[in-house]
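Quick entry between incubations.
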Amino acid sequence: MTTTLPTHTAPAAAPRKPLRPGRVVMYALLVLAALFFLIPVYLLFATALKSPDAIAEATTWHWPSVLNWGSFRDAWAKIGGNMLNSVFLAVVATLLSAVLGSLNGYALSKWKFRGANTLFALMLFGMFIPYQAVLIPLFQFVESVKWAPIDLGFVTIPGFQLYGSIWALILTHVVYGIPITTLIFRNFYADVPDALIEAATIDGAGFWQIYGKVIFPISIPGFVVVIIWQFTQVWNEFLFAATLTNTSSQPVTYALSQLAGGQAVSWNLPMAGAILAALPTLLVYILLGRYFVRGLLAGSVKG
Amino acid sequence: MKGLSKDRLWSVAVLLPSVLLIAVFVYGFIARSVYVSMTDWGNDPTQALALDPVIRFIGLANYQDLFTGFLQGRFRQELVSTVFFTAFFILGCLGLGLGLALILDRNPRGEGLWRTIFLFPMSLSFIVTGTIWRWMLQPGGGVNQAPTLFGGQPSTFPWLSSTEAIWKFDWNKLPLLTATVVAVVLIVVAVRALRAGDRRRTLVAALCAALLLGWALFVAPNLKLLPAPELHGFNLALIGIIIAAVWQMSGYTMALYLAGLRGIPEELREAAKVDGAGDLGMYRHVIFPLLAPISLSAMIVLGHISLKIFDLVYAMSGPDNINTSVPALNMYLTSFRQNQFALGAAIGTILLVLVAFVIVPYLASQFRGEEGHA
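Done. Structure below.
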């Protein structure tokens, strides 16, 4: 099973000790480290909330005297559509990935066959490959899937082009998500006792009945981990977004990189854009951090 | 047992689509990339995007071009950069992560809050991180202005635009350097095998080391990859990107180490204390050895992330800054901006080989033990 952080069972009853010098040093180090992690956040908000003409090198660190919430409105005008693309992409791709991963994990851990582990290891390799090594054939494939409208007389099947549509990204994320979602579910189901499955088999239940009545109902925590993990990954991805989409379907990571890459942009805009683009995954992390960490640790393949 | 075989059939049927997709999208596409990398597709710009381009098989010429071609100095610098980047990135994440985990393991008050703070960058995309740190590291940006907070002069370090490099070496000496490094590793292996009493391994390792050293001494000096010396080193402009990457990923190592520390049974620590180990002795002899597998695991995950990182660089210093560029970024630009698909595929393949060196032994060792009692 994936190692989970048992931090929540940490000895809460540690008696209040008087602050020894060692503890003081410890807290000082913690504060220093926290500053390293939080100072960029302070500057991010301070800049996003300044009006463009208030942004100057000398006042970089100052909190704006007049808050300019307009930055967020302007940033939304530029990347709002891309945010919606990302929402659609991440929701659909995540749900498909989770269903596929759950079925795979169930088949691999509860219906073991010879070579199942080798097959799984071969699948896992797909999680680690640099996508640059498959990008050109992938691009060719996505470009080749298209058809003109087909007139059947009574009804017309509309034309379709995979390249540039959001479906190209959904397909890609579902396919390359198979290894990690299968891994997480396989580890999750490994903790379900085999005796439970055997008992169900003796009762005459088959593959699907066992899945529907035994496995699926206890899968909620597994689904939560996979959904959080995949949502974050898909939302944050950049390489596929940059190669397989066009202007109308670009997700927010690409739009943000264009917004921030421009030369004559005032910095409040990309900063507000970065906040907007970070918000969904950040909220997920803050609300469901425990499951996020579980997915994180699963990614390091604790078999 | 008819029912059972039907169920088996279902389990295969459930797995089949995924297996086929992985077979095509991972292995099939890798094979196709390797093939494309051995053609001249796109080397002639007029043919690149033609509807029916003339593509010829040219063997390893693209690879030769990347390693020895006059125009591909950028790629060679990137290879060197990626090695330095990986080393410092892993060291930074392991060091900071371990430090934070050791502190949090002592149960400070508000532990959950501290953990949240150290881990939140993990949930951001490299593009967001890059955008934020790009602003921080602007020539007149936050970091360089920081001394003014304490009444000092702003610093002028060119964070992302420095063109200075340290630890430079001549690319022509690469075969020599590689052979020497591998030979040294082999000698270490031989010495350890000798101590363990494994005579065959000692002999094989020593022999290989001797062969390599001989080659490095007598053959390599006459080997010239390039007609003129070409210097590559650690570009100082990379420092800023490494800091941003450590900022984003050190929470991950902290989580790993913390899970590991919490998994060490209390009895072990007690036993060490009974044996008279002080705090330091306990860490050195009990805790750190137990954390070693976690370090290895983290190094492998961070290593493969680092080898394929490019969005962070793209967002921080833009696609055209040669001093901070990495092969993964070059692949994207070569293929999709210059339409030199074959050359791009070759860079992608080299990246894959680098990652495979890290990942394949790891996956093999993870699953070798399991297959036995499956």
